[in-house]
Design goal:
Residues 15-25 have a biased composition (Basic residues). The protein is an alpha/beta fold. 22% of the residues lie in helices and 28% in strands. It is built from 6 helices and 10 strands; from the N terminus they run ββααβαβαβββαβαββ. The chain has an 8-stranded mixed sheet with strand order 1-5-4-3-7-8-10-9, with helices on both faces. Strands 2-6 form a two-stranded antiparallel sheet. The protein binds S-adenosylmethionine. S-adenosylmethionine binds next to helix 1.
């Protein structure tokens, strides 16, 4: 079952009462918007229209495997409460649930969430994942989490306020918890960039934009890496991604 903006504890991004960020969610947002490299309806489509059409193009878009960065950076963490932002077809959330995490997973696309819930049921972890539909630019799941993960939360649409969302994500991290953000650093060599005007932020820029309070956070990973991208029906390609992993110091 998926829920539509269930438990949205606030509209917009006012910050969290029990999270790890004293002033999360407010402030700058230059609305730099990113692309994950797919052609889509774009143009005047809203974020939800764009992503619903994107997922409707094929029965399965992503590989079904968890993201490498997630596997690498989370394998050693003790399971707790996790929040997956822009969960798509659910591979990361299901991987986490299989490892004992209790997961809240959210996406703007109802179709992606429906598929994700189906995959979770097949994997026998339906009871460990709460699927919630949110346009994260407008509402955000309630609660605080031991892990907040955002993998490739990019959109060619103008209406994804990524920096604000990621600051709200930091505010949702419980003391002692981890915020993990993976992004694309560029397009695969030889693949035309359909959105050349779009800026893909470096992990240093992502860190600066989080505007984390001094002395409260520890930077564990901040860098670029090469990855082999595999998608159903497509040739494997090498591409550069980046990752930022920060830990909120225990109180
Ligand atoms: C490039 S995909 C990544 C999916 C998944 N995290 C992964 O790594 O395979 C970006 C995801 O972000 C979601 N998304 C885009 N804009 C969003 C928004 N405003 N609120 C919530 N989810 C959004 C899209 O529907 C899509 O599933």
């Amino acid at each position: 079952m998926t829920t539509d903006q269930k438990h949205a504890h606030h509209d917009g991004h006012g910050g969290h009462g029990h999270g790890c960020h004293s002033h999360g969610g407010h402030g700058r947002d230059n609305r730099s918007h990113d692309s994950h490299g797919h052609e889509g309806p774009g143009g005047g489509a809203t974020g939800q229209e764009f992503w619903e059409a994107f997922y409707a193009e094929r029965d399965r878009i992503w590989s079904g495997n968890p993201n490498d960065v997630l596997v690498r950076e989370v394998a050693d963490l003790a399971p707790g409460r996790a929040l997956d932002l822009g969960c798509g077809e659910g591979a990361d959330a299901i991987w986490l649930a299989r490892r004992g995490w209790r997961v809240t997973a959210t996406d703007i696309s109802a179709l992606a969430l429906e598929r994700a819930a189906g995959h979770a049921a097949e994997a026998g972890v339906a009871d460990r994942v709460d699927w919630q539909r949110h346009d994260l630019g407008a509402s955000f799941p309630a609660g605080s989490y031991d892990l907040v993960s955002a993998h490739f939360l990019h959109s060619p649409n103008d209406d994804l306020p990524r920096e604000t969302i990621l600051r709200t994500a930091a505010a949702a991290v419980a003391p002692g918890g981890v915020l993990l953000i993976a992004g694309h650093a560029g397009f695969p060599p030889g693949e035309p960039n359909p959105h050349p005007d779009v800026h893909l932020p470096t992990p240093e820029e992502v860190l600066a934009d989080l505007d984390l309070p001094e002395g409260r956070w520890e930077v564990l990973v901040c860098g670029e890496h090469e990855r082999i991208q595999t998608r159903p029906g497509e040739e494997a390609v090498r591409r550069m991604d980046n990752a930022l992993k920060v830990r909120c110091l225990p109180e």
